[in-house]
Amino acid sequence: MLDAFFQYELLRNTFYTGLLVGLIAPLLGAFIVVRRQSMIADGLSHVTLAGLAFGLFMQKKYTLLMFAPFHTGILFSIIGALIIENLRDVYKAFQEIAIPIILSVGVGLSIVFIALADGINTDIYTYLFGSIAAISSSDLRLIIFISLLVIIFIFVCYKDLFALSFDSEFAIVSGVKSKTLNFVFILMTALVISASIRIVGVLLVSALMTLPVATGMRIAKSFKQTIFYSIIYGEIAVIVGLITGYYFEIPPGGTIVITSALLLGLTLLFNKLKAVRSLKKDDGYAA
Description:
Shape: globular
CATH topology: ABC transporter involved in vitamin B12 uptake, BtuC
Organism: Piscibacillus halophilus
Strand content: under 5%
Protein name: Zinc transport system permease protein
Largest sheet: none
Family: Belongs to the ABC-3 integral membrane protein family.
Membrane topology: Multi-pass membrane protein
Keywords: Membrane, Transmembrane, Transmembrane helix, Transport
């Protein structure tokens, strides 16, 4: 079934990108979920959409090819991440308000730039829902670079990130540079979201960062196990989603998210049946 993905360069690029995204999205997603910042992916994804629309607008209206939508999307996502961090400092007692603010601005800018770029077209459609053949060789190289940055960041800063995610006050007292770490973390999140949009689309990117984590949490016995299982579920969802999307000729974003949701549902059902079986066994011993 994977033969088709290795016959054509664009499909190969998509498959390799999917594997990378299936790794880094749940990897960062595990920390995002623990920090109770699951909505941050939605906020940054809409800002990224504004950047993509801006790039398309500049290309179509002014024929400025240096404004590649993928690159302007990354730039807008990084700017959005920086604004979120600044707003969190301004609203210290209500830090969660930073996300709906940036999400609203992102939606507004997206509407404006999409309208200026002649409205909804095939390019915008692929960014909204993902595409099976939208990854060029240069895009793949950039996504590989982003993946390496994320993996190195998590590997080097794992202990500090773990402490800051579970007990920020203790971490700060222990000498963790929380402001710097949070700043780099949200930048990494922005980069991962930008990279993931090519596969799953703006409207569904947050699902790839949360659903595999939600599934992994139900069977893991430690945080490291949660990360491990989240990545496994993420990779399964991406591979199955890409294959089904290709053969049914539908955007891969939907099939990836549906696969993730099915994996979560099956895991919850398995745990429920396991709990019922255990309860019946205990009742049998009691009898």
